Amino acid sequence: MTETSIWQPMVDRLDRLRAAGRRADFWLRDDDAVAPTAELDRLVDLADRFSVPVTLAVIPAHTSGELSHYLASRDDISIAVHGWTHQNHAPPAEKRQELGGHRPREVVLDELGRGYSHLRVLHPSSFIPLLVPPWNRIDPGLLAGLPAIGFMALSVFGPERSPSKPDDGAKTMKSGSITSAFPRPGLSLVNTHVDVMDWHGTRGCRDHREIIQDIVRRLDEMNLAEEAVGILTHHLVHDESVWEFLSRLFELTAAHPACRWRRVGDLIAR
Fold it and tell me: Which of 80, 98, 259, 266 could form a disulfide with 134 if both were Cys (CB 3.0 to 4.6 A apart)?
């Protein structure tokens, strides 16, 4: 199967949307930014080439003015809060979590408040009141305290709505019971749904065909009027296959009338 042909299912799906006079929204969330790097430069330049807005989930405790100065002249960059230190506090038998129920609630919320304030000062024009939990996991008991800090939205990995039937092979949502906690006053859920990384295998890019299948599945299942296709990346660990995939994805979608890349702030507002 050629590289062109593996993209055909997505192109066909977008063509059907266009024929029906409909359009799908896409957004890009990239995690773990702390400082200017060659990899971040590559991501931002690639996205800029195709006018794709980028949401950077920044780790507050490890970042400084260096990143804010680097991004000051960049358009279409939004800054979200990626926990506090991205440190695991779960015991070895559990999945990694910084925002789990392993520490007092007030301690975790205090750290999130510090992270919120720190990034808002560093990035006054691009800061978005969006919390991205490290490893896409957060204890549901923390949700009620987020609006008081200033957060208006949460972003994890998986569907915003509980599926009505068993998912045929789709990835299990990492957010656990978070979906069932929404909707809730003062807090939106704007998730990512397609991860390009093979975390449990090569730790490089997943098979391009499988990623495309995930995008098509998301297009089929989502509410086009209220939801988007969230693409999740981690610029610091991309191999060449990831860069190739993103370049082709941006090229195809940016030129197609049935899809548009959105700022996450626009998705939160709607």
Answer: 98
Question: What is the spatial distance between Cα 194 and Cα 62, in angstroms, rounded to a whole number?
Answer: 26
3-state DSSP assignment of residue 219: helix
The tokens describing 34, both together, are 């702390």
Q: Which helix (H) or strand (E) holds 18?
A: helix 8-19
pLDDT in tens, 12-56: 999 999 999 999 999 999 999 999 999 999 999 999 999 999 999
Q: Let me know: does 270 contact 223? Beta carbons within 8 Å.
A: no
268 membership: H or E segment, kind and range: helix 264-269
Question: What span, in angstroms and rounded, lies between the C-alpha atoms of 130 and 125?
Answer: 14
| Per-position DSSP letters for 172-211, written without gaps between them | PPTTTTTGGG-SBTTBEE--B-EE-B-TTTTSSBPPHHHH
For the domain made up of 3-269, give the CATH fold: TIM Barrel (3.20.20)
Contact (Cβ atoms closer than 8 angstroms) between residue 264 and residue 27: yes
236-256 tens-digit pLDDT:
999 999 999 999 999 999 999
